[in-house]
Amino acid sequence: MRKFVLTILALLLLNPGDSAGQEAGSMSARTFSGLKLRNIGPAFMSGRIGDIVKDPTDRSIWYVGVASGNVWKTANNGTTWTPIFDDYGSYSIGCLAIDPRNPQVVWVGTGENASQRSAGYGDGVYKSLDGGRSWTNMGLRHSEHIGKILIDPRDSDVVYVAAQGPLWAPGGDRGLFKTMDGGATWEPVLQISENTGVTDIAFDPRDPDIIYAASYQRRRHVGILVAGGPESAIYRSDDGGATWKKLDRGLPGVDMGRIALAVSPQKPDVVYALVAAAGEASGFFRSPDRGEHWVRMSGYIVVDPQYYGEIYADPHRFDRVYAMDVMIHYTEDGGRTFEVLGSEFKHVDNHAFLFDPDDPEYLMVGSDGGVYESWDRGRTWKAVMNLSITQFYRVGLDNDFPFYNVYGGTQDNSTLGGPSRTNNVHGIRNNDWFITLGGDGFQTRVDPEDPDILYSQYQYAGLVRYDRRSGERIDIQPQPEAGDTALRWHWDSPLIISPHSNTRIYFAANKLFRSDDRGDTWVPVSPDLSRRIDRNRLEVMGTVWSVDAVWKNVFTSPFGTIVSLDESPLEEGLLFAGTDDGLIQVTEDGGANWRRIDRFPGVPEMTYVADVLASRHDANTVYAVFNNHKSGDFNPYVAKSTDRGRSWRSITSNLPDRHVTWSIAEDHVDPSLLFVATEFALFFTIDGGANWIQLTGGVPTIAFRDLEVQRREDDLVAASFGRGFFILDDYTPLRHVSE
Known about the structure:
Elements: H1 2-13, E1 38-41, E2 49-55, E3 58-66, E4 70-74, E5 82-83, E6 93-98, E7 106-110, E8 125-128, E9 136-139, E10 146-151, E11 159-163, E12 175-179, E13 187-190, E14 196-204, E15 207-217, E16 219-221, E17 224-226, E18 233-237, E19 245-246, E20 256-263, E21 271-277, E22 283-287, E23 295-298, E24 311-313, E25 321-323, E26 329-331, E27 339-340, E28 350-356, E29 359-367, E30 370-374, E31 382-383, E32 392-397, E33 405-410, E34 415-419, E35 434-437, E36 445-446, E37 453-458, E38 462-467, E39 473-475, E40 495-497, E41 505-508, E42 512-515, E43 523-524, E44 562-567, E45 575-579, E46 584-587, E47 595-597, E48 608-614, E49 622-627, E50 637-641, E51 649-650, E52 661-666, E53 674-678, E54 682-685, E55 693-694, E56 704-710, E57 715-720, E58 725-728
Antiparallel strand pairs: 1-58, 2-3, 3-4, 4-5, 6-7, 7-8, 8-9, 10-11, 11-12, 12-13, 14-15, 15-18, 16-17, 18-19, 20-21, 21-22, 22-23, 24-25, 25-26, 26-27, 28-29, 29-30, 30-31, 32-33, 33-34, 34-35, 36-37, 37-38, 38-39, 40-41, 41-42, 42-43, 44-45, 45-46, 46-47, 48-49, 49-50, 50-51, 52-53, 53-54, ...
């Protein structure tokens, strides 16, 4: 070990370099770039796809935009892949476009164009002139979520960008933008308001100067969603965006939400719209006259329009239209009736769709479970199983031997476990991974004395105790006491095993629960620890919306819940709980009494407490990470208290702007060595937070949601939200470095 440490230190001193955006000198990101993190996958569950395009001159070349995992390219029909967008300003991809006149020109719209709870934000549109080998940011940096990009087939310099705009705040680059010089300059050709952007656009295939656009008013905050408003509408321009006409005859007269558009390739006067609306007015609409009049063909609407909500007109058959939904639905009669496309052995939750211009039976789909191909219109499917783009919310570790296991809960791809290493010559393979629980997955905790006993959960606190030896799963979610009000469980509810008893677990809703018998019985050990605010009385977009507003608070977590939790390993019963409405509550007696903290230096009031960490070295010390991105605030916030939360000081220091913070970890040997996970990177500090240094080795631009330290191996294990797990093996050299 000593020889290894000295070798690493010598390499560091020989490579002072610059700092990749931080302070110059030897204590910089470049100095430590040789410490490479190891990606262990998995790939067998893949991840959420935002968009897919194919080279029209060589259809073995695909570009895949991952909603939370950058852009990938294959030149051999998916046999092998290359990530081609790893080192730029965003990882979240809303849409792709390939120039029909020059397939070497590819456009990327960053920022996922769905509005769900885990949407990542972008920094505008990028363009490549060399098939994805290099990229240039072409502007609209404050759009945050790009809905669609269209390139004029007559002139490659004419491009339209539908910018949904910020999801969590007003303003930004919002609306429909047009460039006539390849992206050097942009003109806003359709703008509605600071709260309403454009989500979808479509050309008339006979004349690209005829453009249809759907505006979209929506806003999301912590525990709050308004997915529509009076400014959602359909427009048409007949002169390349110079003037616009609102098309509303026959459309719902109530507030509308997300609207998806498609133009019939066979009869372009026919236009289709999938419309989310208030009350019972949602449905599939068809216009026979370029949008002048609309007919509601049926009441079909996707399960969650702000998450799915895209439609595709089949180029091979008139009036056949596919709708992206949990299950793909399609109509053969212009929307009067819908059927479910075959999906046996295929993942649900669909977002992207591609036809083959020469083969009417071929379909390609991008879903929450990756990319699928069918050559028989959905009767059978082939899955792409070699894209490591799984979105992990959380990471959990065990003490198995000789190789510890890594567990994580994923976005819509179950809770998974797999080895941190293997003695197989091929390394960690897909079949080394296993599923402990279905659904969306979150925190897994493993009994520190028995690696075969673990606790896994699915969304909204569906908690099970799982025995790896037998495969037995037992539901152990706490229930409200007789006569008590219903519990409020967060989408991602915090779970810990007490460091003082391997059979004691804590699990939190708006109240904290304790079990001393591995979840067989529970007792509440706190009252409601939130601010107890009625979210329906809070202003959104400057007004208090009725409970009947479009999709209000549907598919979002309740408000006023505990979202982070820890117990001091040095003092039994010293617990810290953080809430989604900006509180940290402290008990020093196992829950008999609680002390509320609601102010933190430099942190806006009511900021989501993403993580709390009780120090492994000092019972009086606790760390907190705050995340305010759902108020449109992308600043990092990290704080430290040395008096059990009575007073705090910021240790955010030089963490970069825009790097929303998610998690913190502390070395178990050196109390000054800390790690922080942000929306775009990993950082460490050797001086308790006075100076943070980015870990760039082997790491793409990606969100890291959770961190854990495997103490036996001195490994840092990070859960990325879109590129699987990363491990910094044996980071002990960091305990010895100095300027």
